[in-house]
Amino acid sequence: MKQSGLPAQFNRMRILCSESAHFTVKKSAAQLGLGENAVITVQTDENHRMSLSHLRSKIAEMKSEGLVPFLIVGTCGTTDFGSIDPIQELAVIAKEENIWLHIDAAFGGALILSHSHREKLNGIHQANSITVDFHKLFYQPISCGAFLLKNGKHFNLMNHVADYLNPEEDRDEGILNLVSKSTQTTRRFDSLKLYLSLKTIGTNLFARLIDSTFELATDVADYLSEQNDFEVLTKEPELNTVVFRYVSDQEINQVNRNIQQELYHSYAAIAKTTIDGQNYLKFTMLNPRTTLKDVIDIIDRIRVLGEKWRKHV
Ligand SMILES: Cc1ncc(COP(=O)(O)O)c(C=O)c1O
User: Fold this and answer.
1) Cβ distance 210 to 137 under 8 Å?
2) Mean pLDDT of the chain
C-alpha cells in the first residue's frame, strides 16, 4: 500500500468507531482517500460508550455485504462526555475478527498517571496503535502529541529513506533519526517539554493535578444537579467534563446559545456542544487551580444571563 497506493478494493474498506468518536476519524479517512463514508458509526450505550452488540452486528452485516472492516477506533475519553469505550472487549473482538485496533486516547491517555482512575485504561496495551495528546491532560503547551505502535516494525510503513537526511548507513551505525517515525519532516523537539515536565513535576504530583480535576468535575456535577434551573447530562462524570444547560420553558436552545455568546464577550469562555439537536454548555476541568467557588461564580453568571434571555428570545 505504501508503494502502490490504495488496493483495488479500497471502496469496500470500512472503519468502525462510536457515534461519539472525534471528527478526526472521518477527516483522516478522507485524507487517506477512503472518503468519510468509509467510516461507519456504532451506536453508544446510555453511558456514551461504544455498544459491543451493535459493533458485532455491524461487522457481521459488513462481511455479509462483502465489505472489509479493517479498523476499529475505540475512544478513551470522548470529547463531550469523557466516556471510555470498553477497551478490553474491543481488543477481544478486534483479535477475533483480525481487525486493527486503534485507541484514540488523546484526551484520556493521561489516566495512566491517575491514582483514582487508572484502571479505566485496563487493556489499552492490547491496542495495535494509540494516540495521546500531551497538550490536554498532561498540561503541555500546544502542540505535543504522540502516535504509539504496539509493534515498532510498523513504523516502516511511514519510513522513507532520503540520502541527505536518514541514509541507510546511519541506521546501520546506530545513528537515530526520528524522521523515520514521523509524518512530518522538520519539526520541533516537542518531547522535550514532556520529558522536563515529568522530570520536574514527577508522576505523583501529576497524578494529584489530574485527579483534582476529576474531583472538581464531580463536585460541579453534584452542585448543578441540586439546582432547579439547570439540567445535567453527566451526573457522574467519567473524566472531567460536565455537560449541562440552563433550563428555560421556551426557546431553550437559543437561550443557551445566547448565554454562551454573552458570557464569552463579557466574562468567561465556556464551551457549547450539541447533543441530539439540543444545545448544551460544557465545562472541561483542566486547570488544577480552579476551585468549586470559581465555577459557582460562573454558574451564577449563567443564571443571571439565563433569566435575562428567557424573557427576551
Ligand atoms: C477524543 C479526541 N480525539 C482527538 C482530538 C484531536 O486532537 P488534536 O486537537 O490534538 O488534533 C481531540 C481534541 O479535542 C479529542 O478530544
Assistant:
1) yes
2) 95
